[in-house]
Specification:
Elements lengths: L5 E2 L13 E3 L18 E7 L5 E4 L2 E6 L15 H10 L9 E6 L27 H11 L4 E6 L17 H19 L5 E2 L9 H13 L6 E7 L4 H7 L1 H6 L2 E5 L7 H5 L3 E8 L5 H16 L5 E5 L18 E4 L4 E3 L2 H10 L7 E3 L10 E6 L5 E6 L21 E7 L8 E8 L8 E10 L4 E6 L3 E6 L22 E3 L15 E4 L2 E5 L9 E5 L15 E5 L7 E9 L6 E8 L10 E8 L3 E7 L5 E6 L7 E9 L2 E6 L2 E8 L7 E6 L5 E8 L1
Parallel strand pairs: 3-18, 5-6, 5-12, 6-7, 7-8, 8-9, 9-10, 10-11, 11-12
Antiparallel strand pairs: 1-21, 2-3, 4-15, 13-14, 15-16, 16-17, 17-22, 18-21, 19-20, 19-22, 23-37, 24-27, 25-26, 26-37, 27-36, 28-33, 28-37, 29-30, 29-36, 30-31, 31-32, 33-34, 34-35
Helix pairs in contact: 1-2, 3-4, 8-9
């Protein structure tokens, strides 16, 4: 490993403007023991001097919860495991030590791995305790009071568009809705939102952005900054150059998956440039390599001063789209198992030794032998250098495609000039991603490095990350090992009998279209006072193609034979309907194409068995006698290639042949966007 070969460089000083390159022959700095003919490495020198001017101000490293429902299962973890996970994400000098938390402003629509509830389902409705993003922001602030908070909508409730699938026809309504969320965060949770976005990865509207700024100011929210447009660099950069009024109100240009590059117009705006969503890659060693490379190169190549990962923590069923694309994995609240993945420690290389408000040094951060470095200072004499030597095949992100490049072992000699000349030692933190034996070294503290007369050398191998810093505050914390992984319980029941639930949604149910919330049924004096109710009654302004039916999934994707039982209550007269289902094979952005075994009953007294959520593949149909506004018990039994159904304990249909899917989750849902209630759910 390159770490053994670091030392002060007794080399001639180099003119600051000049990059000296020479070959060290017969050197004993290589990976072999001193004196043994170690392989000579090409050497290059790099000068760090704050005196020649600073680069851009650093704005921090962050991650996204939402877009959507990516933290869904996290809230159901028992203590102490839940707090341990939160510590790894947010606690300073502990793990990822994130500077920024970006959350979805729930809009009741599907936003990748599920729906997140809106604070205003309907025009005359306000509730600032739905979902889990409020809770998550508070937990983040509890650990790091300095963390910056960003809100961004993916979807909007239907009433915003007054029937159109578009949020900009009534910009004052949309602005009022977003401002309500910001004010609610403060009033009910004492949370100050720092930045607000426009509409994730969809069109922006200049009139709306100006009105949003005006409305923010009118409500005393001058400190809330606007990010636009959370899509591509264009057309927002071009429009900002043309429209001086818009230029005045947009504070940050946020681009998604920029591939470490920016565009000329973005630079011409002189705005802060952020990669406001990036990464989105499976969190193994290659994902860590992707993250290490873009954390440096987004600045080195693209002048981006903040990089925000989608997503914060993979706390959603792994077989939903983009499974395990979080900085860490926590998808088993029933067992308590979680995994601190390599990207957490790659994050720490930057976050534990920098803070928003530090400045990058003005230096070309490309290493001669491939890879990159950034150097940052707090202006008070502290210096942090982060070096990465990720190879092409070991650092490919999910998008965009990565052009080929070469990285080879090399020696880097750094000259510290100006105020940094007085630095005598640097703390050293080291990671090496191992793609052969999975024996990666992650965020290991090495012996401090002596700086001699303002210079030092370091031998770099491929797929390494170094942090060299004057700060002594870095820590690699480890909680006790979490419990071992376990599949979802094979017997699971929920009667929803909870008077003051800590969250609005029942544990482990993952809504894929519609929103299912705890409900107190004041009109029922009997067994169904506490129920689960589907509450979205109009199709939201969508971000992807939500289903025409509502559905919430639960359980183990690999279930084959199962029995699902649930009490159901149709509220919509005449054409209302509900279902229970098994072997449900899809969700997230693909929810419209969901297959499975669906047992439907309708308010008109009929039933159906279908092989899909859309109800197009009818396997059986007939009369059931079910009506609205009455409780009934449905049971679905799937064994091998055969399924049967019971109504109120009596067989209603049987021997329906099932060809595929061969496995999947259990689910409940409704025929349309309609009120309906569920109780005493049981699956085995």
């Amino acid at each position: 490993m390159g770490a053994a070969a670091m030392g002060a460089a007794a080399l001639p000083p180099c003119p600051a403007a000049l990059l000296c390159v020479w070959l060290l022959l017969g050197s004993s700095w290589g990976p072999g023991p001193p004196g043994v003919g170690a392989v000579p490495r090409p050497t290059a020198t790099y000068v760090l001097d704050a005196g020649s001017g600073l680069g851009r101000q650093f704005d921090g490293i962050g991650a996204v919860s939402g877009g959507g429902a990516t933290s869904r299962l996290l809230v159901n973890y028992q203590e102490p495991y839940r707090s341990q996970i939160l510590d790894y994400l947010f606690k300073p000098n502990f793990g990822a030590s994130l500077h920024i938390l970006k959350v979805e402003i729930g809009g009741d629509g599907q936003s990748t791995d599920g729906t997140e509830p809106s604070h205003m389902h309907y025009e005359n409705d306000e509730n600032y305790f739905r979902g889990y993003e409020w809770w998550l922001m508070k937990e983040a602030k509890k650990r790091n009071p300095q963390i910056k908070l960003i809100g961004l909508p993916w979807t909007f409730p239907a009433w915003i568009g007054k029937g159109e699938n578009w949020p900009y026809d009534y910009p004052h309504v949309t602005a009022y809705y977003i401002i309500s969320w910001i004010l609610g965060a403060k009033q009910y949770h004492d949370l100050d939102i720092d930045y607000i976005g426009i509409w994730n990865e969809r069109a922006f509207n200049s009139k709306y952005i100006k009105l949003l700024r005006y409305t923010l100011d009118k409500h005393g929210l001058q400190q809330v900054r606007i990010i636009a447009s959370d899509r591509l660099w264009e057309p927002i950069s071009f429009v900002l150059l043309l429209d001086s009024e818009l230029h005045d109100v947009v504070d940050v240009i946020g681009a998604h998956y920029p591939g470490t590059k920016t565009v000329p117009n973005a630079l011409l705006t002189q705005k802060k440039l952020w990669s406001s969503e990036d990464y989105s890659t499976f969190n193994d060693e290659v994902g860590a390599g992707c993250w290490a490379r873009i954390l440096n190169q987004n600045y080195v190549n693209g002048n981006m001063t903040s990089t925000i990962a989608w997503n914060l923590v993979a706390s959603y069923y792994e077989d939903l789209p983009f499974g395990r694309c979080g900085l860490m994995t926590a998808q088993e609240p029933w067992s308590g198992h979680y995994k601190v993945e390599a990207p957490i420690w790659i994050t720490a290389h930057t976050t534990q030794f920098t803070q928003p408000g530090w400045s990058y040094l003005q230096v070309d951060g490309h290493l001669e032998g491939g890879g990159s470095f950034v150097a940052l200072t707090d202006g008070l004499g502290n210096l942090t250098i982060i070096i990465e030597t990720m190879t092409h095949n070991h650092s490919q992100c999910i998008r965009p495609p990565l052009p080929h490049f070469n990285v080879s072992p090399q020696r880097a000699t750094f000259y510290l000039r100006g105020s940094f000349y007085l630095v005598e030692t640097l703390q050293v933190w080291y990671s090496r991603l191992d793609f052969e034996s999975a024996n990666s070294i992650l965020f290991k503290q090495l012996q401090p490095l002596d700086v001699w007369r303002g210079s030092f050398s370091i031998d770099l191998d491929v797929d390494e990350v170094y942090t060299l810093t004057t700060l002594k505050t870095g820590r690699k914390c480890s909680c006790p090992e979490p419990p071992p992984p376990q599949p979802f319980p094979s017997n699971y029941k929920d009667d929803f009998n909870i008077r003051n639930p800590p969250f609005s949604e029942a544990p482990n149910f993952a809504d894929q279209t519609g929103v299912f919330e705890y409900f107190i049924n004041g009109s029922d004096p009997g067994d169904h006072v506490f129920t689960l109710r589907q509450v979205v009654v109009q199709r939201p302004i969508t971000w992807v193609s939500d289903a025409d039916q509502t559905i919430s999934i639960i359980g183990n994707f690999h279930w084959v034979n199962l029995t699902v039982t649930c009490d159901i209550y149709i509220e919509k007269q005449d054409d209302g309907g509900v279902f229970i289902a098994g072997r449900v094979d899809n969700g997230g952005i693909y929810v419209r194409r969901t297959k499975g075994v669906f047992f439907w009953v309708y308010a008109d007294g009929t039933y159906r068995v279908t092989g899909d959520l859309a109800g197009e593949v009818v396997l059986m149909k007939g009369l059931s006698g079910v009506r609205a506004n009455a409780w009934h018990t449905l049971t679905l039994n799937i064994q091998g290639a055969s399924a049967s159904g019971l109504l109120n304990g009596y067989p209603l249909w049987e021997n329906v042949t099932i060809s595929k899917p061969s496995n999947g989750w259990a689910a409940i849902g409704t025929r349309s966007f309609e009120f309906a209630q569920f109780d005493n759910f049981y699956v085995e």
